[in-house]
Amino acid sequence: MSRDIKKVVLAYSGGLDTSIILRWLQETYGCEVVTFTADLGQGEEIEPARAKAEMMGIKDIFIEDMREEFTRDYIFPMFRANALYEGTYLLGTSIARPLIAKRQIEIAREVGADAVSHGATGKGNDQVRFELGYYACNPSIKIIAPWREWDLSSRTKLIEYAQMHQIPVPTDKQGESPFSQDANLLHISSEGKILEDPWLEPDYDLILTRMVTPMNAPDKATEITIDFEKGDPVAINGEKMSPATLLAKLNDLGGKNGIGCIDIVENRFVGMKSRGVYETPGGTVLFQARRAMESLTLDGPTAHEKDAMMPRYAEMVYNGFWFAPEREMLQAAIDKASERVTGTVRMKLYKGNVIITGRKSPFSMYDEDVVTFEEDTVYDQKDAGGFIKLNALRLRLGNK
Question: N or C: which end of the chain has fewer CB within 10 A?
């Protein structure tokens, strides 16, 4: 990267890594740094990021509450697809990156910056997600990725650099450097330390911040209802809520009942495997409720076609192709299928489980007169014989 950079917009969390990056950019490029901190529902105060940035001489500081936009325009569209990466991961970190990238580029235009920067490492997926987002929003933008440039190649060196520059180093409950965590309204991911050995059992008392374990959850179930309109949740227990407020409420309900913690080994886009513990309480409840709503309102072929699209859609989000035309194409089909996904789902939350107990919809395709085991006048069972013979024709011809 050329050192001819006058102004750079940094995605700044206020944490250790991005604080070090801020100082490093000032020292290495001698450029003006503009910080951007997005409130995506991390669950912690973000104003301290302003104080840290000011302490390091930053004049242009952007701190913005983006929780509603994040939930409405990114999380909910993704959930309409029932997206699961490799069958387990609800894409909590992945879905946050395109919004941050888009806003960074907008800020760069507003302040006349010629570059943007992020704190993602050269081993991870986030560098790809951020930079694909940058290029999609501004093809000519310059990008500074410190982890691919500097010689601070380990956590130890990073901490030494911080101490040398009087940058506070956080500690966990044991007084050690904490797990590498990423948090937003949808989830919290934890990686590093003992989690780098996939055989070692996580210490959930040390890791979990948004939920309890199923073993520590209440012995009494919590019963709730979720109302849907055109595929999106709009109310809990009949009370209408904004998208972000609703998801936060589901986080609280799911977290108290030990729902939504997974320990997975996933395949990163860059080619390696990684192990992490993810907390997604509200998202897990919402995922199960949406599936129940769709089971009532989508016909079989449409539901199966959606399921066939899902792995490809999830992979696009995971790999950073949110702004790609093929993702938008799939989204259009998914949104079309969601038009009649309206109604109410009732469930019990109990010790890590989401137990569906009922569903109803004005667009229900379930007909009691047709499915009854009692005598009926609307379905002639003799018709099934011809149906089976027609479907068996190729099998019979192939086995002559």
Answer: C
Q: How far apart are CA 145 and CA 154, in angstroms?
A: 16
Tokens found for residue 290 = 């949406």
| Cα gap 392→220, rounded to integer Å | 50
Length of the chain: 400
Do the beta carbons of residue 52 and residue 19 sit within 8 Å? Answer: yes
Query: Domain range for residue 214?
Result: 182-298+340-360
Residue 252: pLDDT band by 50, 70, 90 thresholds? very high
- Annotated catalytic residue: which of 19, 80, 126, 338? 126
Active site residue 394: no
Q: Which two tokens stand for residue 123?
A: 């081993």
Answer whether residue 210 is part of any domain. yes
pLDDT at 178: 63
Is 126 in the active site? yes
Instruction: Indicate whether 307 belongs to any domain.
Output: no
| Residue-level pLDDT at 2 | 52
The one catalytic residue in 94, 180, 274, 361 is 180
Domain end point (choices 170, 204, 221): 170
Using CA atoms, how far apart are residues 388 and 400, in angstroms rounded to an integer?
18
Residue 173 has pLDDT above 80, yes or no: no
Closest CA to 219 of 260, 262, 261, 258: 258
Same domain as 67, residue 12: yes
Task: Note the pTM of the prediction, 2 decimals.
Answer: 0.93
**How many structural domains does the chain have?**
2
Active site residue 340: no
In order of 43, 136, 137, 372, the CA distances from 46 in angstroms are 9, 28, 26, 56
Q: Is 323 left (phi over 0), alpha (psi -120 to 50) or beta?
A: alpha
> Using only C-alpha atoms, what is the Rg of the chain?
24
- Both 121 and 203 in one domain: the answer is no
Do the Cβ atoms of 255 and 211 come closer than 8 Å? yes
| 335 catalytic residue (yes or no) | no
22 CB neighbour count, 10 Å cutoff: 26
